[in-house]
Specification:
Distance between the termini: 9 Å
Helix content: 25-40%
Number of domains: 2
Mean pLDDT: 92
Largest sheet: 4 strands, mixed
Strand order of the largest sheet: 1-2-3-4
Radius of gyration: 18 Å
Shape: globular
Structural class: alpha/beta
CATH superfamily of the largest domain: Response regulator
CATH topology of the largest domain: Rossmann fold
CATH class of the largest domain: Alpha Beta
Low-confidence stretches: none
Number of strands: 8
Strand content: 5-15%
Number of helices: 4
Length: 184
């Protein structure tokens, strides 16, 4: 569901409520209010928040939150200013550089062993041995995705889709087999 807003408690809660009514068993958000976690807490549906730890709002359902550390970018931009170099207009860094992370796991809610598995995945993302868009793990129109060109850039090589390596805007816009979309 799309709210067309970064900060509308009411719209985010309404979307989460609608998804829960449709049978969603996990809600993740990419918006900045506590609307979705509030709906999840009321319905007993696990949730993943965005940018801040949502356990104070959803102590029985919040698992963790995806988060960005803008300090990594600010340090880069200030260093460019100090050095007199241009600041990239399409800057993108990820987990290995500390720009992406998750908030602490909610030990009250996550399954035993989750912390160890998260550490394993974080280490693999950081050292490059795990790729989120490993093309051997999904199909598109019944076939493995072995090529994808967008705006003159080939995104698939070495067995994975190189999301965010060639620009900061999301490039992955293919429909993976078995994933359905809810449209209104």
């Amino acid at each position: 569901k799309y709210t067309n807003s970064w900060a509308s408690f009411d719209l985010e809660k309404e979307c989460a409520d609608a998804l829960i009514s449709d049978g969603c068993v996990l809600i993740s958000q990419h918006a900045d209010t506590t609307g979705a976690p509030s709906a999840c807490e009321a319905a007993g549906v696990p949730c993943v928040g965005y940018n801040i730890d949502m356990t104070s709002v959803a102590p029985n359902t919040a698992l963790t939150s995806a988060s960005m550390d803008w300090g990594v970018y600010y340090t880069y931009a200030v260093q460019c200013m100090i050095d007199g170099t241009a600041i990239d207009t399409d800057w993108c860094k990820g987990f290995a550089e500390g720009a992406d992370k998750i908030t602490p796991l909610n030990d009250k809610v996550v399954a035993k062993g989750t912390e160890d598995k998260v550490k394993e995945v974080e280490d693999a993302l950081s050292d490059g041995s795990l790729h989120v868009f490993d093309t051997s793990t999904f199909t598109v129109d019944g076939k493995e995705l072995d090529t994808y060109e967008k705006d003159g850039q080939e995104y698939v090589s070495d067995g994975y889709f190189h999301e965010s390596e060639y620009g900061s805007a999301p490039a992955f816009d293919v429909a993976i087999d078995g994933i359905t979309s809810i449209t209104e």
